[in-house]
Fold APC family permease.
Amino acid sequence: MTVTSPKTETAPPSAPPGLRTGTLGTSDIAFFVISAAAPLTVMAGVAPIAISLGGVGAPAGYLLAGITLAVFAIGFTAMSRHVTGGGAFYSYIAQGLGKPAGIGAALLAMVGYNGMEIGVYGLLGSATQDTVHSLFGADVPWLPVSLVGLVLIWYGGFRSIDFGAKVLGVLLVAETGILILLAGGVLLKGGAHGLSLASFAPGNVLVPGTAAVLAFAFAAFTGFESTVIYRREARDPDRTVPRATYIAVAFLGLFYAFTVWIAIQSFGDAQVVKAAGDDPANLFFTAITTFVGGWAADLMHVFIVTSVIASLLAFHNAINRYALALADEGVLPRFIARIHPKHRSPYVAGLAQTVLGAVVVLGFWAAGADPYDQLLLWVNTPGMLGLMALQLLAALAVPFFFRRITHQEGVLRTVVAPVVATVLLAVAIGLVATHVDLFTGASPLVNWILLAVAPAVFVLGLALAWRLRRSRPETYARFGN
């Protein structure tokens, strides 16, 4: 008798781990986006300069910037329902304007987001120096602080995305809470000389200095568009991503305008411009000391540091997901697309980004550069301009995309809003470019170099597209799809 042994079935190899899907709700995504903007840092560190240049009409500049970006979001979110890849900006641009523009946009996104994050390690070092000196009278070197920050941010990105969302939620509540505390003190005491709505009078808004205010205001929203990067990890992304985008724009626009108005009321319409010009770095600290108490000023110093950390973590997560998408496309090496089996995070992309940040930080330190005036401003500025250029290209891509597909979206969302947003964003980029010296404090030569980075990177991306089409046609064919 022949005995046939039963076949042992071999289990199919398990699929490689992917990102943790269905994890992020609307509030989680909004926390990432608003934290990237660093509201407390923007208000305490930049708004006084906007007031000194634009006068009491400065709050209206932040409202106008918010309205412009809300118009941009109309077409942007309409397209997000039809382009579902992880490439966000570059996928939209590739689908609307063609693959060469998309590859140029991909390179620009990587440089832009890295510039926005890596420069902020200089701010982390200088802000921590200021906080320690203010609270304890001690002086600490900035480099160890920045390096410790690199490790902390790497760990936050290494952990699961819901861990990062919880951390950012706590930090965002802290930084906005201290500004709300200031607002409560000013409103309860009626300001320095009563409460005034002169900030919104046309005569105070339509002044030459408003152009500079608008440049600062648009810069303050940088990173709000990163909602779509988290699409693969979102719950019901067709609803949560657009909601988070509108919440982020509305919150930032209204909160910025309200907080700047509060700062003006704390000194009075007649005195605030001089106060902001004489000592911009301490305008908010003086206001909260006067209307709340010295203990609140100490808390504000601490929360500025945590605000910077929140911004770094938010940008780090965004960069990792862009790198993951490009590795999936075959543009970056495949090993960068590895996902951690437990935390479901793009941990190799995070490690690569951290190493790049360390190299840049150490390079500026070795050159004897100032962490704020050079590492922050010189690295951030081309990053900011790069992201604004991406917004412009994405707005321009929307009507071209919808012309080529069958859809049920209205003409307002697919043509009118994107065209209006394109014009307004072009104006915004022009304002930032013509006032770039206010952002950098650098020489004309340095400013020209910084302005040239974004267009040079985009052109380099076009050259990369030409090379991919010739040498790797399969990779080129599937790019952006």
Summary: Confidence is low (pLDDT under 50) at residues 1-13. The CA atoms of residues 85 and 91 lie 7 Å apart. The longest helix spans residues 99-136. The chain has one domain: 26-471.
